[in-house]
Amino acid sequence: MTYAGAAADAAFAFELPATWTVDGQFSDVGGTVTVLGADGAPVGQLSVLIAWGAECGPDCTQPAVVHLGDVPGTVPLSSSGPFVVRSVAMDLTDSPRLREVNGWQDHVRLTTSLTDADVPPPTAMLPHVLHGLGLVETGAVAPNGITYRTVIFSSAHDFPTVAAAEAYAVSEEHRQVQAMIASFRA
């Protein structure tokens, strides 16, 4: 099934299983929608933003991540070009404060996201920015003077162990998430 939409002057589309749905609506300035699996549980989020930035905050700790593989995107993005769907896992077993501050439900987070193909697999990341992003050209000048929009298309799941995250990473649902993100075009 194809989901097509527009946000912040960016037109886009992606494929998802027929039993999945998209919840939420975009506005003229962008926003975020959630993709729900057949059981109604979130399996992904798509954000389209005019401006994006991330700060370290009071703690710039960058814990190690395990790279669990990349899947190539099917169509290059109109501004940033080719992308991959990258899966990384971070284990914060020894950092309960970081888990709490970042809203994790368990010790390990697996994030799968659209990522610029030129960005090498990371060895460490900020826990609150555990995803990649892409850029989409719109031709429309935003209030900040740019014509591209930032796209964050990701899926995050929490697990008790890295082994449990690795097991999910080879599941049918995860393959469907990867295929959905890889099909994004704009």
Brief characterization of the structure:
The chain is mostly beta strands and 186 residues long. 13% of the residues lie in helices and 39% in strands.
Question: Can you offer a commentary on this structure?
Answer:
With 186 residues, this protein is mostly beta strands. It has one domain: Protein Transport Mog1p, Chain A (3-Layer(aba) Sandwich), CATH 3.40.1000. The protein has 3 helices and 10 strands. Strands 3, 4, 5, 6, 7, 8, 9 and 10 form an 8-stranded antiparallel sheet that branches. A two-stranded antiparallel ribbon has the order 1-2. It is globular and about 45 Å long.
Beta-strand percentage range: 35-45%
Q: Can you tell me the CATH class?
A: Alpha Beta
Beta strands, count: 10
Question: Could you list the spans in which at least 5 consecutive residues all have pLDDT below 50?
Answer: none
For this structure, the quaternary state is: single chain
Instruction: Profile the largest sheet.
Output: 8 strands, antiparallel
What is the CATH third-level topology name?
A: Protein Transport Mog1p, Chain A
Helix content: 10-25%
Supply the number of helical segments.
3
CATH architecture label name: 3-Layer(aba) Sandwich
Sheet/helix structural class: mainly beta
Averaged pLDDT = 95
* Overall tally of domains: 1
- Summarize the helix and strand pattern as letters: EEEEEEEHEEEHH
Key terms:
mainly beta; Protein Transport Mog1p, Chain A; two-stranded antiparallel ribbon; 186 residues; eight-stranded antiparallel β-sheet
